[in-house]
Amino acid sequence: MNREVGPILYKDVVTAVIALFLIGIFIQRKKLASNTKRKLPPLTKTTKWETIKLIAASDALWWIVSVWKELKCSVFRFNLLLPGIPMMAIVCEYELAREILIDPSTSKPRFIYQSFEYLTGGEESLFTSNAVAWHQRRVGMTSAFSAKHIKRMHTVALRMIDEWIETTLRPMVRNGEAFDVGKEMIRVILGAISETAFEYTISEEEKDMFAKEFSLCSNEFINNASNPWRKLYGLLIPERRRAFISAARIMNLGLNIVAHYRTIENPIEGTVIDCIMKNSFYKNDGERAADVIFLLIAGHDTTAYSISFTLKELSKNQREQDKLRESLKLVEKEKWSHSDALRNVVKEAIRLNPVTATGSCRCLGKDFTSREGYVLPKGSIIFTNFLITMRDPTVFEDADTFNPSRWENPSEAMKKAFLPFAIGKQNCLGQNLAMVQVHSIVAKLLSSFQVELVEEGVEQVQLTLRPIKTMLRAKAVE
């Protein structure tokens, strides 16, 4: 009799799977039939399999931009009409993006964000959570970004850029050597954030490890977020197996930071790590380390690459660089970060190269309608593409041109379309700190050095948009 159990169970499982699949098809067709009565956004002109491959590719962002230009539409759907997968769409107009991001009924889609938890050993974080889990984390660390702490963190960042100038940049200037701006700024900001936010002195070896391992595992887990097949066949894919090793090493750094806090006799009150360690919501060190890692990732990426892109744009536009340097001479050093000319340059560089280029992802809690009258039904998964939003030719004249003066008298549409840190309750927690540091470090470098482009490199997305192998050469100025 026992010999019959295996086959019977197998048949039952197969029957159940087929039944669920057919039910899924029936439900989706019923939804599609209902939606045909409404004007849905156009589909990408690719097959389902082509779509999966394209959105999982490293150049997916540029493919999406090409689709936007081809369709000439502010919202469009991915051709991913499969059982169990909701409608997925790209939103390219700022009005609709803002409306969605501030809507209280929208939330982060769990099946998308859950993939990023592979970075933290399956632990939920501020980045991946919703509702109570997100709220308790966010409220618990808000005080760490008060004006007092921003000033303290800013001071440390300036000290570290001074050290980098003396130990790294000036020797390169004397030897006429070029430097990889993305890599160098990452090292500076990673050190600054580790010290100021977590009271942890990160070693040069740890910086190298973090950069290498994060690059390896973020590529894989981004692929997983948009390609569910990689999850099913993960153990057969060498890159995926290696990514789990990378994630474990990164998570170990987070656990080391948590453990180090407990050895500090008199920790600074109200730092990010202090807020995390004193928040009773966290159940264990794994949860604490998960937030440490994602704050470390978000904090150093946003600031370092915004500085890098600003320097890159100025190296390509020497006239604008000279204008900025002359304007800084008219302002006291302590007030550089308040310079309108500086703010306009940084804002324009970020507009063209938003670090969060792929935007925010949300599950709609209600129906939304685009300016063309296309309906995005409740339950749809949408991506607010900030690169496209901030290059919208209906909002920005000569949208692909670096022109800081456009911000001297911006229109209301320009102000509202500028969304580098998103908006709404789940916006970037550390955006004020990031901008203070970007302004001050760019001013510090440009006041003493002229930068020129040696090699433009490429732009890639690994969670964030980043310059790869962008080589600059600096020369001292009088």
TrEMBL record:
Molecular-function GO term, any one: heme binding
Gene3D superfamilies according to UniProt: Cytochrome P450
Homology family: Belongs to the cytochrome P450 family.
Species the sequence originates in: Chaetoceros tenuissimus
InterPro entries tied to this protein: Cyt_P450, Cyt_P450_E_grp-I, Cyt_P450_sf, Cytochrome_P450_monoxygenase
Cofactor(s) listed: heme
Key words, A-Z: Heme, Iron, Membrane, Metal-binding, Transmembrane, Transmembrane helix
Name of the protein: Cytochrome P450
Ranges annotated as spanning the membrane: 9-27
Organism placement in taxonomy: Eukaryota, Sar, Stramenopiles, Ochrophyta, Bacillariophyta
Pfam family, one: p450
Chain positions recorded as heme binding sites: C428
Domain of life: Eukaryota
